[in-house]
Amino acid sequence: MRQRFFYLFVLATLLVSCSGGKVKYRIGISQCSDDIWRDKQNAELRMGAYFHDNVELKFAAAYDSDERQVQQIDSLVNNGIDLLIVAPNQVQTISPAIDRAYDKGIPVIVFERKTSSRKYTAFISADNYEMGRTMGEYIASRLDGKGNVLEIKGLEGSSPAIERHKGFMDAIEKVPGIKVVGSLQGDWTEETAYETTKLWFNNNKDVHVDLVFGANDRTAMGAHKAMTEVTTPLAFRRVVGGEAVLYCGIDGLPGENGGIQLVRDSLLDASYIYPTNGDQIIELAVNILEGKPYDKETLMMSALVTRDNAKVLLMQSEELMRQADRLDLLHDKADNYLHELDTQRIVSWLAIGIIVLLVVVFVLFYLYLLRKISMQRERVTNTLWNMEATVDSSPSTANSQQTGTVSPANESGFLSHFREIVETRLSDSNLSIDDLAADMNLSRVQLYRRVKAVSGSSPVELLRTARLNRAYQLLLTTDKSVSEVAYAVGFTAPSYFTKCFKEEYGMVPGDVRK
Question: Dihedral (C-alpha) 366, 369, 373, 375: value to the nearest 10 degrees?
């Protein structure tokens, strides 16, 4: 039950950390090398970042090159990081680049390896001197206070190599029966240790070795490989008792071919756990960025690994690695879930956008219709048929009626008279142009010419306009049906009335009252 609650808690934490929020802190990580120890630490750094929202990690590996690491640190700083975590390749050469970052106001965490400068915000590491001293004491005890030891050191100029060597020598010097027959220069890699050890033995065939101490487990295994290939029995067997040469290292990594497994399988006699603790480094970084209290110097706890405890330690570490793999799996699943959620969110926003667009189009179309109706109403109001006219009673009116000519003086009077006649007989569906001409005391031809000259429209068109105008007014001011209005203005068929009305006003009669 507790384990289930733990996973629920972790999943909730991962959902928060994968929420895709805006990045708040960008942390640059400059690794001096790329090996299994740093792979484990990088995995722990990423896992530590899972538990802090809005933290982005930027990794760089220098592959044991001072020049490359200096360039990478400068690049991380120029790209805008908020904090630098760095493991310097060597004490002296990397310090200027670290100082430049610190002088720009960027907090610097130096881990595992020291620099020659004090320009750093915090330092976190295991005690390398204590590791070397403890291994020296263990070796002296393992050899019962007498024997020959071959040492293979780490990278020249790196603080762990310097401190481990010093601690080892300080312990060995207290035991007169232990003799260091050689201190070979290595660079942390198995390949260099192999070549260096093989060359030394070829040049010292008469020197027997009881134990090889490597500055890390890989150098110890490189020496192991070299010594098994040397043909001289003294190279790989102890003189007294004919016992096999022993090998000791430092790192004590879990997992396949890690130091703990090598001790369990008797390939190494002992190792010393060099803690990676990437999650602890991230916690320190976030505390610095958020202004929380922190220790400037932190020494991580460690432990000696022998055949007495290797099996238990390996079981515990394997369980932790399984839990870490599950956390990674949970994080990936949460990340995929949130990616799908983001996709669904995008689709939802697109759908909302389309709906909004359709609503806007509908509103614009509705406003267009309202404007069109308004314009049609203005057209009805301003039509020629509704123009105010005053009856002209001058003598020229009668003459113009006889001759068919039109003068500006009697245009208004003619139209006013024509309108009165038409409006009087609008309800007469049998009204013809001949009837209107007779009422105007004009011939059909004269009526057509005068109406055309004055209005630009024919008498038939004006009659139709008058009927539709009257119909529009009736629709606005009465509650008559469309059919009743059609008959009232002289149409014999409501369907034809509707057709004519739409052609004139751009809408059907029923829309007038909307």
Answer: 120
CA angle centred on 415, ends 410 and 421, rounded to 5°: 130
Distance CA 346, CA 352 (A): 10
**228 within 8 A of 267, measured Cβ to Cβ:** no
Separation CA 465–CA 483 (nearest Å): 18
With residue 421 as reference, give the H or E element that holds it: helix 411-424
pTM recorded for the entire structure:
0.59
- State residue 113's pLDDT score: 83
How far does the chain reach from its first CA to its final CA, in angstroms? 68
The C-alpha atoms of residue 369 and residue 376 are separated, in whole angstroms, by 10
Query: Which structure tokens are listed for 409?
Result: 């003086």
270 vs 439, more confident: 270
Phi/psi-derived region of residue 277, left when phi > 0, alpha when psi is between -120 and 50, beta in every other case: left
CA angle 259, 261, 265 (to 5 degrees): 115
- Kindly give the interhelix angle for 36-50 and 2-17, rounded to the nearest 10 degrees: 90
Q: Give kind and range of the element (H or E) at residue 126.
A: strand 122-126
Mean pLDDT for the stretch of residues 477-495: 89
Give me the amino acid identity at 20.
Answer: G
Angle formed at CA 400 by CA 396 and CA 405, multiple of 5 degrees? 130
- Cα–Cα distance measured from residue 445 to residue 453, given in angstroms and rounded to the nearest whole number: 12
